[in-house]
Write a structure and sequence with these properties.
- With 500 residues, this protein is mainly α.
- 51% of the residues lie in helices and 4% in strands.
- The protein has a two-stranded antiparallel sheet with strand order 1-2.
- Helix 2 crosses helix 3.
- The radius of gyration is 26 Å and the shape is globular.
């Protein structure tokens, strides 16, 4: 019996040693492969010609990194449209006319389009009607690698303290290499001060971020909520001191008594969410598991034995095999269905809030017209402000809520509650002033009808932009061409003309 136990024990020990050896070999193999891949990437990253510290021209970088540059140029493609996004140009005001009423008195009521690929960043901000009357120069900040160059030349505060028109001839190269990379060693770096300043305000040091974290933070320079401080003038700031959530930022703005504009119909002190993609992502399962933005939107690619990051920044739904299926083993059809099932639920609640808010603004106008006082309207206007902020915190983020669907649904649920409370309070005011019938809603079934209802003239918007195209933009391009020609091009640059 003892002899049998001894044999069994020896056999078990042998298996343990065998399995341990297999695991050890696998780990060593993985480490060797990783080291070789890193060496291969480093070898590919060697530059044939040095790049200037603030070189904005993507073609200059592309001469050293042709694979990355060629994939970046694919952001010019506009042929992919998913159920709720993609690269195709989409007029959201045409699709959702209620938005015109929600933003009455603010630039987004003039135009709100789906952003195309990064290569169109400068062109699209020139073309939108929102810039017809000019904006702060700060609005250029996320559109071009020219921005860090100008900041370095003028100073950060001095760069911000100007009009959008003042910087037009300086900002001509579309989002690209220098926005994210250090030209000395190709390491990821933060080129916009607002993100580092936001980290510091929270007591964090962005210089301690890991490489994997940087693969999201370079995106978070722009894909975030922000506002412009009054002092220093038009200074870009992220409202993160109280946290990343919609509720935390709402509390931050309320404490500051900040508003983006006063609504033209309801007179509510409004907040406009920009595109809090990073904040929403931080609350979702991918963000919590350490999956970076680049893992999904810029996955690794193999070409001719070389491994590199695909710089065709796009929806993962147009590249499921390299993005989603690296971790998820389901079929493309199954994964697409999973994404849409989550997005559709978010969009359903979004639509409910939009309809309620449009009615709330119109009903509030009726209350003012009936003689309501500021004290009588105070509670309802606060509810409108909070409801629309929470709706916009989800609606303005890319991905139709997919980055964190549970969070998106929760925030939209509270938006519905607050929009309902606003309408209830307005109804009480209307009754007090003798209006007991339901307020008749205007015909806002199309973008054109909605814009005319709030006092915009679509024909005038179109004419102003046409004048800019004819007179202003060519002047900017000429000045930019002269400046860039004086900078010269290295001999190894074959693409002599910038994408834009």
């Amino acid at each position: 019996m003892n002899q049998q136990n001894k044999k069994t024990g020896n056999s078990s020990m042998g298996w343990i040693l065998f399995l341990s050896t297999l695991v050890g070999v696998a780990i060593v193999g993985f480490l060797i492969t990783t080291v070789m891949e890193r060496r291969g990437e480093a070898k590919q990253a060697k530059m044939t010609n040095p790049i200037g510290e603030w070189e904005p021209r993507n073609e200059v970088w592309g001469a050293n990194f042709p694979r990355e540059y060629e994939t970046w140029k694919k952001t010019l493609e506009t042929d992919f449209k998913s159920a709720h996004g993609g690269s195709a140009k989409t007029d959201y005001l045409e699709e959702y006319p209620n938005l015109v009423v929600l933003w009455a008195g603010y630039g987004f009521s003039k135009a709100y389009e789906q952003g195309r690929g990064h290569a169109y960043a400068v062109e699209d901000i020139r073309e939108t009607y929102r810039t017809n009357a000019g904006m702060p120069a700060t609005c250029w900040t996320c559109k071009s690698p020219d921005v860090p160059r100008v900041m370095n030349e003028l100073g950060v505060a001095e760069y911000y303290d100007a009009t959008w028109f003042d910087r037009g001839d300086q900002i001509v190269n579309a989002i690209g290499c220098q926005d994210c990379h250090d030209p000395k060693n190709m390491n990821l770096r933060i080129s916009r001060p607002a993100l580092a300043e936001a980290f510091k305000a929270r007591g964090d040091d962005i210089n301690e971020a890991t490489h994997q974290e940087m693969r999201s933070l370079v995106c978070a320079q722009c894909h975030v909520e922000y506002y412009f401080e009054k002092e220093p003038a038009k200074y870009l700031k992220f409202p993160w001191e109280k946290g990343f959530s919609a509720e935390a930022m709402e509390a931050y703005y309320d404490e500051l008594d900040f508003k983006d504009w006063t609504h033209k119909l309801s007179r509510a002190p409004m907040l406009k969410a920009q595109h809090p993609d990073y904040e929403l992502y931080m609350t979702g399962v991918h963000g919590q598991r350490g999956v970076s933005c680049s893992d999904c939107h810029m996955p690794y690619k193999n070409e001719g034995g070389a491994k590199f990051t695909d710089h065709h920044v796009q929806s993962p739904l147009n590249n499921i095999a390299n993005s989603c299926q690296v971790c998820h083993r389901e079929s493309e059809a199954t994964l697409m269905t999973d994404v849409y099932s989550r997005q559709n639920k978010v969009m359903e609640l979004r639509g409910i809030v939009e309809g309620m808010l449009a009615k709330a603004h119109i009903e509030a106008k009726a209350a003012w017209d009936a003689g309501a006082t500021e004290e009588e309207m105070k509670a309802s206007l606060t509810h409108i402000r909070h409801a629309q902020w929470r709706w916009d915190w989800v609606a303005a983020a890319n991905g139709a809520g997919f980055h964190a669907p549970n969070t998106a649904l929760q925030v939209l649920g509270t938006a519905i509650e607050k929009a309902g409370a606003a309408r209830h309070e307005i109804a009480r005011v209307l009754w007090k002033h003798g209006i007991t019938d339901e307020i008749e809603m205007p015909d806002i079934s199309t973008k054109d009808k909605a814009q005319r209802y709030i006092g915009l003239d679509p024909d005038e918007l179109k004419a102003t932009k046409a004048k800019h195209r004819e007179e202003l933009f060519p002047e900017w391009d000429q000045k930019a061409a002269e400046r860039q020609e004086a900078m010269g091009l290295p001999d190894n640059v074959s693409d002599k003309k910038s994408i834009y």
